Amino acid sequence: MIHLPSLEALSDAPLARKPGDTQFSTLEVDASWALDMSAKDTIKFDPSVVGNLDDDADVAGSTTSSLRESTASITSSIYEYRTLHGRSYQASNTTEYWFPTDDRHVSGNDVAHAYLTMLMKNKLHLAPVENPKKILDVGTGSGIWAIDIADQYPDAEVIGTDISSVQPKWIPANCSFQIDDAQLDWTFRKDFDFIYIRNLIGGIGDWAKLYRQTFAHLKPGGWIESVEIDIETLSENPRVQNDQNHVFKRWCQLFWVAGDKAGRTFRIARDGTMQKLIEEAGFTDLHHLRWKVPIGGWAQDPLLKQVGLYNGLYIDQSLDGFALFPLAQILGWTFEEVETLVADMRKAIADPKSLPLFTWNVVYARKPE
Predict the structure, then answer these.
(1) Across the chain, where does the E strand assignment appear?
(2) In the prediction, which pLDDT does 58 show?
(3) Where is 43: in which H helix or E strand?
(4) Where are the domains of the chain?
């Protein structure tokens, strides 16, 4: 069973917490079959939410639009940030990252962590790691995965790295965070048992180098696990999915163009690219899993409905922050143009007949003995 936070708790504050504390205590959902889902399977919709899919006049209630956005304030920092229309973005020697680094996005990152853990049978990783002594979390973000994995393996040393200092101060004794750019040459000792990489889409210029460095810094027999989203918004409604002019299509195409222009692809989770580069780095025993994740509470299945509600909250909090840097800073759009596109995207996602979803990809593999 997995414990998830209430929607009220998620909307009111970031989910950073002290070791041993939990805000995942208000709802229990059986996630025992989650890993058996296939991205090829169609997700059945809930008629009480969607209504009659073939009748545009038959509109049931929308769950996504009712979710309240976080109002957490942005804290000051001595580190270098860029601020665009009220949203903070982190800069480093090699990266101006497209994700915001303010409390609103950090809170959303923790919501995504909750529903991904739920999809993974309440596991923090899928790689068959046994009694690890040293773990590296590359691009740790809010630090929530590193904190949880440190709690799970109290005898392991856990290091989380990021270009942004947004991690909490209250952490397990065996966990530490470092300001470090994963795109530079790594200076760690080459003795990790497990290296975890998640949600670095749009932030890496050379994924092949990232995977090669991961390979080099693992012990023989050590494991990599890489988790990334395909940024294309899909739909289980054929009318939406087949509409080449729909905002879902325009949105992902703009991100692809921005990533290509900046030299930091948004296509890493497409066309088998993750698997290919990980295998080319020297890894064996490669496994790939791919899940459909609804946006909003339109799914009929109770687990997917709850996952979709949390994903809907995450997306609702994050859309403007996602779009601002790639479109305004890279593609040169005006703030008003970005606002218009975000409004169109938000409206489409909030429409329960859109049946929107993302796909998440997990690849794990082993360094040969």
Answers:
(1) 2-4, 27-29, 81-84, 87-91, 96-100, 134-138, 157-162, 175-179, 192-198, 218-235, 284-294, 356-366
(2) 65
(3) none
(4) 2-13+38-366
183 close to 204: Cβ distance less than 8 angstroms: yes
pLDDT in tens, 103-132: 666 677 788 888 888 888 889 999 999 999
Between CA 301 and CA 46 the distance in angstroms is: 8
The structure tokens listed for 74 are 């942005």
Structure tokens at 150: 């440190």
Looking at 3.30.565.10, 3.10.450.50, 3.40.50.150, 3.40.50.970, the CATH number of the domain 2-13+38-366 comes to 3.40.50.150
| Rounded-to-integer distance, Cα 98 and Cα 247, Å | 20
**Where are the extended beta strands (E) located within 151-271?**
157-162, 175-179, 192-198, 218-235
Integer Cα distance of 260 and 253 in angstroms: 11
Tokens of 110: 């923790």
Residue 329: the pLDDT is 87
Percent of the chain with pLDDT over 70: 75
